[in-house]
Amino acid sequence: HFEIIDTELKHANATLGEILDYSRMAEPKAKAEELGALVSAVLRELPPPKGVTLKQVLAKEKTLVLIDAMLFGKSLGHVLRNAYQATAATGKAGVVNVTTAANGGRAAVEVFNSGAAVAEDVRAKLYSAFNTNKPRGIGLGLAFAQKALARMRGTIELLDTPDGAAFRLSLPLAGP
Length: 176
Hints:
single chain, 176 residues, alpha+beta, five-stranded mixed beta sheet, two-stranded antiparallel ribbon
């Protein structure tokens, strides 16, 4: 019974931590950071689950963005975990693609998953706090990402795809 209690206490502590991180989000300490290195670090920290293949296509040129590395890392982590979960939920082998690019004074990270598309009725509340359809989810991942990115003059958007789902995180490039 102690193992069950320990597991549930860890889950409760993690849940409370997520709520506090969202509600007490610190002001970003934005500085010039290399986007590819930040994305690579997040991908190393969050390997894909069994049955999910991670493919990454990072821009060859160095892309400097003006962001808070910790807030960006957590935001991308939330989007990546959602992509892994959506892909794994299909019960068959799938793929998550992560790409980076820069264009017109902005940089973008796109995360595509071959899981189910985002249902129309879910789209309206997609970035609302505590909105989830996961049994043990708290519904703060995309809300956190939107709030954090907005504080860094960035955005997150759901992209229309013929299958699966894709999100684009857009960030301002650092000056010359």
